[in-house]
Amino acid sequence: MRTTALGAAIAVAPISFSAFGEATKATVKGGRMRLSFEPYELKLRHAFNLARNKRTTTPGVQVRIDLDGFTGYGEASMPPYLGENVASVTEFLSKVDLSQFADPFRIKDIHEYLERIAPNNRAAKASVDIALHDLLGKIMGQPWYKIWGLNPDKTPNTSYTISWNDDPAELQREIEECAPFKVIKIKMGVGHDKELVEAFRRFSDVPICVDANQGWTDKNQAVEMCNWLAERNCLFVEQPMPKEMIDETAWVRDRSPLPLIADEFLQRLPDVRRAAGAYDGINIKLMKSTGMHEAHQMAELARALGMKVMIGCMTETSCAVTAAAQLSPLVDWADLDGNLLIANDIFDGIKIVDGKVTIPADRPGIGVVPLG
Ligand code: MG
């Protein structure tokens, strides 16, 4: 554990997720925020196939901010394709000195400060933002859906992801694990695309959504796939083509019966308007948006532009997934299954009840409790 409360001073001590130590009185006594962090590798329950890689673990960094007996929890999850890693995140966090902020509620000032430290580093910034939101919610004694004025009954169903597996028994196991879910996300772009949909359709008729993960490079093929999927109860297609193929994606959108959703194409708030030129909607993820503050702005802007909104996650613990769930009453579709994919979660938070995202009731902040 390194603590950066004193700027350059780095102390090493074990992080304690089981020590609650949170104050029950909603008062801040004029202390200063102290940020601490620790790498935590997530173990995947099953190897994860994507269009461009396959992995069995994913790196993460757990973060906490302490202030006057309140503790806010945050997390950075760094899938290899987004360019951050444990070294870059810990280097960034080592430079963060939150003790300079006398008022923890200056969220915008704190974000401006994080931007001045270094560009990019979005997951690192998200980890600070999530911990800050958790801290502020606990000080106020309220969950973030309530602070944002959202109705927790309006959370969507979450999708659950399956991908192609060359081992028929493994594929069957994947498909059978989908049974509790009301929407299934099918990862495509690794070949066997139609075969995978047909294998699933023999098992279930629940709606699917498709994530091509930039895997379709021919615009005519992309339109053909959209038409084929539309006949098989598919809700939308996520990132059909490589993110650089903007004109081709717009061409496909004009011909596709299904909405096209931007994922890899889009990271932060200014990208939302750009996405409107080629996509019908956006997939917001906290690790791309630098956390909850900007994710909320992105969802509101996309809504104002008449776009569809989806909230997704990386493979991460219930900490970051539950933080994303706070925003989910604002979106059309949720893809919040990241915590279900790991074997070593260290938080209790979001629940999926009858397929639906369920935000923990009566828990302030982001709504998580560390597992002892
Ligand atoms: Mg995606």
Which secondary structure elements does this structure contain, and how are they paired or packed?
Elements: E1 2-3, E2 11-12, E3 34-39, E4 42-49, E5 54-58, E6 60-67, E7 70-77, H1 86-94, H2 107-117, H3 122-140, H4 144-147, E8 159-163, H5 168-176, E9 183-187, H6 193-201, E10 208-211, H7 219-230, E11 234-238, H8 246-255, E12 260-262, H9 269-276, E13 281-285, H10 286-289, H11 292-304, E14 308-312, H12 318-325, E15 333-335, E16 347-348, E17 351-353, E18 356-358, E19 369-370
The structure holds magnesium ion.
Overview of the structural elements:
- This protein is of the alpha/beta class and 372 residues long.
- The protein has twelve helices and 19 strands.
- The chain has helices spanning 86-94, 107-117, 122-140, 144-147, 168-176, 193-201, 219-230, 246-255, 269-276, 286-289, 292-304, 318-325; strands spanning 2-3, 11-12, 34-39, 42-49, 54-58, 60-67, 70-77, 159-163, 183-187, 208-211, 234-238, 260-262, 281-285, 308-312, 333-335, 347-348, 351-353, 356-358, 369-370.
- The strands form five sheets. Strands 8-9-10-11-12-13-14-15 form an eight-stranded parallel β-sheet. A five-stranded antiparallel β-sheet has the order 2-1-3-6-7.
- Helix 1 (86-94) crosses helix 3 (122-140).
- The structure holds magnesium ion.
- The site of magnesium ion has 6 residues, from loops.
Short description:
The chain is an alpha/beta fold. The protein has twelve helices and 19 strands. The protein binds magnesium ion.
Strand order of the largest sheet: 8-9-10-11-12-13-14-15
Number of alpha- plus pi-helical segments = 12
What is the residue-mean pLDDT, rounded to a whole number? 91
Identify low-pLDDT runs. Answer: 1-25
* Helix content bin: 25-40%
Number of strands: 19
Task: Categorize the overall geometry.
Answer: globular
Bound molecules: magnesium ion
Q: Supply Rg.
A: 20 Å
Q: Structural class of the secondary structure composition?
A: alpha/beta
Summarize the main sheet.
8 strands, parallel
* N-to-C CA distance: 18 Å
Q: Which band does the percent of strand residues land in?
A: 15-25%
